[in-house]
Design a protein that fits this description.
Elements: E1 11-12, H1 13-25, H2 33-43, H3 48-63, H4 66-74, H5 77-99, H6 108-136, H7 141-167, H8 171-193, E2 198-200, H9 208-235, H10 240-254, H11 259-274, E3 283-289, E4 296-302, H12 305-319, H13 325-329, H14 332-353, H15 355-361, H16 367-396, H17 401-420, H18 426-452, H19 457-465, H20 467-490, H21 503-539
Parallel strand pairs: 1-2, 2-4
Antiparallel strand pairs: 3-4
Membrane topology: Multi-pass membrane protein
GO cellular component, one term: membrane
Subcellular location: Membrane
Length: 541
């Protein structure tokens, strides 16, 4: 057999995780809709109701990833990533041609399909990152999901910073950036992930907690930097050169996670030198083969009594939860989770889609500030939600969906602030809704993988995520859009001013978030015995 080329070989799971984080950082294209929706409205001759329908098409594309889930089971990682990148290029590239008047405007329904195709490509990047990483870190699922979803949540802020530095106020060129950016980034990431058939994992992974702390530290530094830059840009007059400098530093911080795989490798080599070779070593290598897609990975087997009684037992119990699609669809727990996501995350998506119009209605001029802040707090919510959820479940044995209920209550509080709109509280409202929404993204995929297994995770995950745009479709089409347009007509304008524009909408969405929290608590009650079995040793150790 011929040896693999040096650039195309198996990688450590930490290298693959870093690559997955960067995949997610380019996949959050739906979060920048507010930044370029203005040029769609002006160049395509749309009113607010048309923009809301485009937003729904965007949300449907971003969440209906069943095709990505199926393809992840039969195609190598690099092929799925390329398919997603070309879908993004085709969809957003055609939108750029439309707004640039290079091609004549098609019927509006076709524009919606084009928007769907462009955002749907991101599901291929997202699903590949999740499936690969969860397979390699089965005992730290919430931590990994929080990290990955955090980078996706920050994606919008990253794109907005590039826009502010090089393209503003040219929103048409920003659409071109969205079209080209992912496919340019995916090329080196495909090499980082490798062929996908084998993933080399260090024999000695005693420093897993340290490595995760380093990744979380780099991520929080990135979020803090982005928040600082956003506030400076809002409060001060920043020239073009300063914005470019901000962006250069941003990319340098993005490179910091690359040190983690190297640290893991050096730690493993040092451990191997210090540990004497035993006839029957306590630390052995084994290969784990996924019978569904042939994914093979080499993992360490730590045979200490404590880990046998806790970590290994937990992993075996989780492996036993693998369910077929038909069995999962007949399970009441699955539908409780879906309706919980339907009510709560659909409201969050609607809030983000209308954030620019809400800021304008309350008299704010720099609406991009709130879009960037929502992405940053979304990022923080995903990181913190994943970490707190992992601690609550693995240390105390609490059902995973209790954290989901808490996040939904936080979102309800944010919706109430949006509805009442006391002076200057929009900043707090953005924080509450974005952080709660982000925490949900970190918690529900982990709960799904624990309750129904990894065998069909890609398909089930994308099925559950469809609940979010379904909720957004109802809120945007039948509540937010009509209420806004009706109040605008009363004011004799195409734009609405004042809290009345969104008051009814957000009171309704606050109520449904409370309903979602009740469903999550019901699911927690139904699954508490399962979590006690899985994590009882950890909880009482």
């Amino acid at each position: 057999m011929f040896p693999m080329p040096s650039l195309w070989k198996e990688r450590s799971r930490w290298t693959v995780l870093v690559a997955a984080c960067w995949m997610e950082a380019t996949s959050g294209l739906s979060y920048v809709f507010s930044t370029y929706s203005g040029v769609l409205k002006s160049e395509l001759g749309c009113d607010q109701r048309h923009i809301n329908r485009l937003a729904v098409a965007k949300d449907l594309g971003d969440h209906i990833g069943l095709a990505a889930g199926f393809l992840c089971r039969i195609l190598p990682n690099w092929a799925v990533l390329l398919i997603g990148s070309f879908l993004i290029l085709g969809g957003y590239g055609f939108l750029w041609l439309l707004t640039n008047h290079t091609v004549p405007a098609p019927p509006f329904w076709l524009v919606c399909i084009i928007m769907f195709i462009g955002t749907n490509g991101a599901t291929y990047l997202d699903t590949t990152a999740l499936v690969t990483s969860l397979s390699n870190f089965s005992s730290s699922r919430a931590t990994v999901v929080g990290l990955l979803k955090g980078f996706k949540g920050l994606s919008g802020a990253l794109f907005n910073q590039i826009y502010a530095s090089f393209l503003a106020p040219d929103q048409t060129s920003f659409i071109l950036l969205i079209a080209l950016g992912p496919i340019v980034v995916m090329m080196p990431l495909i090499l980082m992930v490798g062929p996908g058939s084998t993933m080399k994992i260090s024999v000695n992974d005693d420093n897993e907690d340290l490595n995760f702390r380093l990744l979380y530290g780099a991520s929080m530094l990135l979020a803090a930097y982005m928040l600082t830059v956003t506030l400076v840009q809002d409060l001060c007059s920043v020239n073009e050169n300063t914005n470019i400098a901000f962006t250069i530093v941003l990319f340098l911080i993005l490179l910091l996670p690359l040190f983690v795989p190297k640290i893991a490798e050096l730690s493993s080599e040092r451990h191997n030198k210090e540990t004497p070779q035993l006839e029957n070593p306590l630390l052995r290598e084994r290969w784990v083969v996924d019978g569904e897609d042939g994914l093979t990975s080499r993992v360490s087997n730590v045979c200490t009594e404590e880990q046998k009684l806790s970590g290994d037992a937990t992993e075996l119990l989780l492996l036993e939860t693998d369910q077929s699609l038909s069995k999962a669809f007949r399970n009441m727990k699955f539908w409780l989770l879906i309706f919980s996501i339907f009510f709560s995350m659909g409201s969050g998506t609607t809030a983000f889609n209308n954030l620019g119009q809400m800021a304008e209605a309350q008299g704010y001029e720099n609406t991009e500030l709130f879009v960037s802040m929502s992405n940053i707090w979304n990022f923080v919510g995903r990181l913190v939600g994943g970490y707190v959820s992992e601690t609550s479940t693995s240390v105390y044995g609490h059902p995973r969906t209790l954290g989901l209920a808490l996040a939904q209550v936080v979102m309800a509080a944010g919706h109430i602030l949006f509805a009442t709109a006391p002076p200057k509280t929009i900043y707090v409202a953005v924080f509450l809704v974005a952080a709660g929404y982000g925490a949900e993204w970190a918690i529900f995929p982990t709960a799904l993988s624990e309750l129904f297994g990894l065998q069909n995770f890609g398909i089930l995950y994308n099925f559950v995520t469809m609940a979010s745009p379904a909720g957004s479709l109802i809120y945007s089409t039948f509540i937010a859009g009509p209420v806004y347009d009706r109040q605008a007509r009363k004011q004799g304008s195409s734009t609405c001013e004042g809290t009345i524009c969104f008051e009814t909408t957000f009171f309704i969405m606050a109520a449904v978030c409370v309903i979602a929290a009740a469903l999550s608590i019901a699911l927690a009650i139904r699954t508490r015995s399962f979590y006690r079995r899985c994590y009882s040793d950890s909880a009482f150790r």
